[in-house]
Amino acid sequence: MAELVEFRVPSGSARTLLVWGLEPQLEPGLEHSLFSAFSKFGPLYSVRVHRNAAVAEPGYYALIKFYSAGDASRAQRACNGQRLFQKSPVKVCVCTKQKGFQQQVLALNSTKCQELANHYLGFNGWSSRIITLQNVSGLDGENEELGKAFEKRSVKYLCAVEVTLPKHGLRTRGVALGEAEVEDAE
């Protein structure tokens, strides 16, 4: 059965791997090497490399976040105890608790959502269409008389989108309002 994937910034600890035993001489290209080794298992949200504490052996450890807990689990099983890109084997475990990492759950940008949809659903496994894209600047009267005195103005767009997953018989719609400041009204 396919895993349900949520398109948001990953927050669950089961999506994060702790990798340690990274050799100090590999420091300049370590993030790239880790990304190359672990992205084979699925899309990564982030790869963060940190120097070991002064009381430990010289070297590094890394926190690797996947979008999917299933991808993280497969990567842990395949990579733990392996010599991925160095002489000695690395140790990999799934983070079980992340105290102090409480963060606000943020939505992903549309490009990343499309990349993830293509990965999990396959190209042509979904489609999207813009229902409406409308400039709604000034509808609330903000940039009329008072706004002329200010150099900076804002522009607002309303967008409604429909995403269809034909293989699953699903269709959903979403609406967003985007705003940006502009220097020149023209």
TrEMBL record:
Signal peptide: none annotated. One of its GO terms (cellular component) is nucleolus. Residues 15-97 form the RRM domain. Its main location: cytoplasm. Keywords: Cytoplasm, DNA-binding, Nucleus, RNA-binding. It holds the Pfam family DSRM_RDM1. CDD domains: RRM_RDM1 (cd12364). One of its GO terms (biological process) is DNA recombination. GO terms for molecular function: DNA binding; RNA binding. It is found in: Cytoplasm; Nucleus, Nucleolus. It comes from the Eukaryota. InterPro entries: DSRM_RDM1 (IPR057652), Nucleotide-bd_a/b_plait_sf (IPR012677), Rad52_Rad59_Rad22_sf (IPR042525), RBD_domain_sf (IPR035979), RDM1 (IPR040224), RDM1_RRM (IPR034200), RRM_dom (IPR000504). Homodimer. PANTHER family: RAD52 MOTIF-CONTAINING PROTEIN 1. This is RAD52 motif-containing protein 1. The lineage of its organism: Eukaryota, Metazoa, Chordata, Craniata, Vertebrata.
